[in-house]
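ok so i was messing around last nite and threw this chain in just to see what happens. nothing serious, just curious
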Amino acid sequence: MNQTALAPRSAVPEGRTDPGRRVGWGVPALAAGLIAAIAVIAAVHLTQGTAAVGAADLLALLGGRAADGSDDAAAVLVASRAPRLVAGLLVGFALGAAGAAMQSVSRNILASPDTLAVNAGAHLAIVAVAAFGISLPVIPTGLVAFAGGLLAAALVLGLSSGGSGPVRLVLAGSAIALGLSAVTSMLLLLFAQDTVGLFSWGSGSLAQIGIAAARSMAPVIVVAVIVLLLLGRRLDILGLGDDAARVVGVNPRMTRILTVVVAVLLAAAAVTIAGPIGFVGLCAPAIMRLLAPRIRGLHRHRALIPLAGLAGVAIVLGADVLLRVFVGSDRSVAVPTGVVTTMLGAVFLTALAWRMRDTGATSTAAGLTRVRSVRRYLVTLVVAVVLLVALVVASSLLGDAKLLLGDVANWITGQAGTGVTFILDTRMPRVLAAVLAGAALALAGALVQAVSRNALAEPGILGVVGGAGLAAIAVITIVPLASAWLVTGAALVGAVVAASIVFGLAARGGLAQNRLVLIGIAVSAASLAMITLLVVLTDPFNSTKALTWLAGSTYGRSFAAIAPVAIAIVVAIPLLVASRRDLDLLALDDETPRLAGIDVSRARFALLCVAVVLTATAVASVGVISFVGLVAPHAARALVGGRHSRILPVAAILGGLLVCVADVVGRTVIAPDQLPAGLVTALVGAPYFAWVLWRSRAGASRLV
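result:
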């Protein structure tokens, strides 16, 4: 992968300095500055807490002077504040060093424990053990996290190898992380009693009960960092290229494998101590790499790795201090530190993407415009309609209580008994909500892919779903009895804001694929962090409500709740019919539609508005459902070709089929318990997305 494709304009090749911009101080001065900053932050960190122990009490205790309440101060320092500080030091250093190593072996400035899905894999492994009632000591827990993180990293690196741009790794990691997170959410919902407290912990929290975890993981982190430093010279040589490394006797493959294993071990140790704290492993080493052209010697890994670790410490402790300043010491106990680091990381990733040179982008226009025969289209459309009708009928009959066709006929005519009426009055809105939401998300995905000319784009990856979900959850949490129209309006506002941020920033120099996807992922991550913050601050003991909404569920839906998405689809259909030719031309390039007399900017804006409305109403109807806007248009394009007069109806039907099947599976497979439909679609969509990347791993950009 070509790291320079994502480097800011001021960056120069790794291993060199820019004489015109070199500063007068080097690695020792930078290290001293970071250590001094950490010391100041740590001093402030120790004074924060819920106990009435202030700076004066701690200074008296540390100075050996007797003071009123000195025993209480000692107890607070030893049992609470010192363990939290030590956890921050260890976690920050481990994540910073791990991120630096991962970026080097992948030659990608965007590589980190987050983008390689290491945190998601480690989190899933720990939750899986807890879900089955197994209680492990710290060291075995760390080994479980290590195994989960290593498997996830191996999968992501395998899928992203041979790609045509650095963003491929981020796409692979995001897809795998979404799939793993879906399984994690499923376990949290099904085993709520055994996994209590793991929802907020899943965003990363420095809160510690004693220092046992930090004491057990500290030797692991120290040894792993020493191994990375010993590998530093090999990593320096590896940066010159595989051929140059072989000439001097360095085995590139073994060096990469060993480095990845050690980096995953560091990330797993951090997860064991504090949960998956997001974006630290991305931001800390990336900042050091951005400084490397200006500071002599910083490009060498024996300097880069420890300094990235120190930067990670400053980020983690600084985020924890900011958290307790803004939300207060009492409320910060429930708020994960990872929420703040994720928000900071999202801003950093957006800034990096906004300034980058998008030289690694490849056009997907060929994949978006493939031609199929009319006969194939008609056969596909008829089969899809028949399957959808059959599925709707089956969905109305299946559930925790099985019904017959006669029961449905009696319900339609108003002659059904009380029990059947009650069942169908609650079941039919769910079936219709699944079909309509799936169709809306599929249409929105097809529009976004055509407008951005990016076959990997979809409302979920581009942050629109996250923005709509955040606004909807805010209304549901603050106004528990909010009407469906109020929730829909809030979701629409959230989707508009998210879309404005993503497409507004990505429009610089055109909607380049890499920039669009990276900013969308950043907005999605920030939205999820704010949702977590909202839930734990307003209703920390009811995380199941947020999990159910985030997982996408049709449970408890009424006919009134699905009216907005039905109206949105009805209004969108004639607009899309009239715009089908514009969509075909926009999917090609910018010049062709202009030659045909189309105002490209206005057409893009109008179609994106339609996509945003469809997404917002779908999210308000069934919650956050991932991958439908990616899978359905992809499948439709593969079946009927690239003309949007054919893609749109087939994609809408396939989207309805996908969500409806997910809903039926979710409420029948473990009845009377239920799985949210969004978890099932994520379990299907993540492997599909991985398969798409695998097919194109040789460097071809076609995706269907």
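not much to say yet. The chain has two domains: 3-26+90-310, 376-695.
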